[in-house]
Specification:
The chain is mostly helical and 439 residues long. The chain has one domain. The chain contains 21 helices and no strands. It is globular, with a radius of gyration of 22 Å.
Length: 439
């Protein structure tokens, strides 16, 4: 049996194990180890696993993962998310659909200091959904806008998916963070345009009866009180992203500074008890270890594929088929979106990128641009059934049994269409992704 055939069998076996319920990281390691064993010997396979584990995460750069996760956890418990929503709600109170716009705006700002969509979905489900429903918005729209805008956390830097892509593609994480700024703002603006369009042209899809009640109690807010509420999150954004983009900090140092700043804010706001601190630390450990374990598994998997010669063979095959770069790109993005319906975002990247990156390189595609497209396509899976992680996060954070999973998926569907539109725009205009990263 040829090495190439073994490589294809390994991919099929790995997907079968995932479907049967095996953890993605374990499935990657088991199939990679077994394939190298069959190709070479048990001793070489064992050394192969040891070398991959040693080389994959020993670099100083990987400290960025737990540090940004820790910062996001401190921000979540400090109540900054609620204050951010309150400020945007007050600023946009006179616009039709203002609470929906406030949710998108608050999510965009919150994303700039968390990098995890699940954190945004959990926070704003508890903050924004009851407020919107109280003011006459339909439950379907209320949960849909929260689920839809929560995915900004995976695109606007710092982004956990960007970190994982940078590791696998061996690309600068700092440049990837820069590349996510304009696409993230574009997606937020498109979400706002969607909400305004629904508010003025299809109000029945947003409001339970007529126009929503005005939030008169918000008129007690002043510019001074709004500035006080918004100052902590603005300080973190300037501290972390300003230091990172000015070159003052490396991504790892920016994560450390951000985590320390978020810790001080949580203390100053008296939101951090010993129990909450322990929960934050343990949750950070769980998330970080799971991500780093997946990176080790992905390193072993990519080395196994390289050993079989599969990426080179697929590259040659696609070139011979005459698809060209655009044909390859469309096929790849469709596969990623389809995979998003059945497996999670990180798993998709770990499975697909070791195969497609050499092909993208052979077509001369910019890895930064390709990474942004990958993250947006992967994020669509956060909102599509049956796996949609953001949708299930919203459901788990709700205290309303009358709102079903079906309602949340239906409410998020218009945002899925907008994300597909943004994917087309970013593909046609690569400069939106590369301009800041190349400065």
């Amino acid at each position: 049996m040829s090495d190439l055939l073994l490589g294809f069998i390994a991919i099929g076996g790995m997907l079968a194990l995932i479907v049967l319920g095996m953890h993605i990281g374990v499935a990657l390691i088991v199939t990679s180890f077994a394939t190298v064993w069959l190709m070479r010997s048990p001793e070489i396979a064992a050394r192969f696993v040891g070398a991959a584990a040693n080389d994959a995460i020993r670099d100083y750069l990987f400290g960025v993962v737990p540090l940004f996760v820790l910062m996001g956890m401190f921000v979540s418990v400090s109540g900054v998310g609620r204050d951010t929503f309150d400020v945007f709600q007050w600023l946009l109170r006179k616009l039709r659909g203002g609470l929906g716009l406030a949710t998108v705006g608050a999510n965009a700002v919150f994303a700039a200091i968390t990098g995890i969509s699940i954190a945004s979905a959990s926070v704003f489900t508890k903050v924004a959904v009851p407020e919107m429903m109280r003011h006459g918005y339909t439950s379907r729209f209320s949960v849909g806008v929260v689920a839809g805008s929560s995915i900004l956390g995976m695109l606007i830097p710092p982004s956990l998916l960007m970190i994982i892509y940078g590791v696998i593609a061996e690309e600068s994480i700092g440049r990837l963070f820069l590349a996510g700024v304009l696409p993230g703002l574009l997606l937020a603006l498109l979400f706002c345009a969607l909400i305004l369009g629904m508010a003025y042209f299809r109000p029945a899809s947003m409001y339970t009866a007529g126009l929503p009640a005005s939030a008169q109690e918000q008129d007690t807010e002043t510019w001074a009180s709004a500035a006080v509420k918004f100052f902590p999150i603005l300080l973190l954004v300037v501290l972390v992203l300003g230091g990172l983009y000015s070159g003052l900090f490396t991504p790892t140092e920016a994560g450390a500074v951000g985590a320390a700043g978020a810790f001080v804010i949580a203390l100053a706001r008296r939101r951090l008890t010993w129990r909450k601190l322990w929960n934050v630390l343990t949750e950070t450990g769980y998330v970080s270890v799971s991500v780093l374990f997946l990176i080790v598994a992905a390193s072993l998997y990519s080395r196994m594929l390289a050993l079989t010669g599969m990426p080179a063979a697929i590259t040659t095959g696609i070139t011979d088929m005459g698809l060209g770069p655009w044909g390859f790109l469309v096929a790849y993005l469709l596969i990623v979106i389809a995979l998003g319906c059945i497996i999670d975002s990180v798993s998709i990247m770990l499975i697909m990128l070791p195969i497609v990156l050499p092909i993208a390189a052979s077509f001369g595609m910019d890895k930064i641009w390709f990474g942004v497209l990958t993250v947006v396509a992967v994020e669509i899976g956060l909102l599509t059934p049956p796996f949609g992680v953001s949708v299930y996060t919203v459901k788990s954070a709700l205290n309303n049994p009358n709102i079903t999973i079906k309602d949340i998926f239906a409410g998020a569907f218009p945002f899925v269409l907008v994300m597909v539109l943004s994917l087309v725009i970013l593909a046609i205009f690569p400069g939106l992704s590369t301009w800041l990263a190349r400065m």
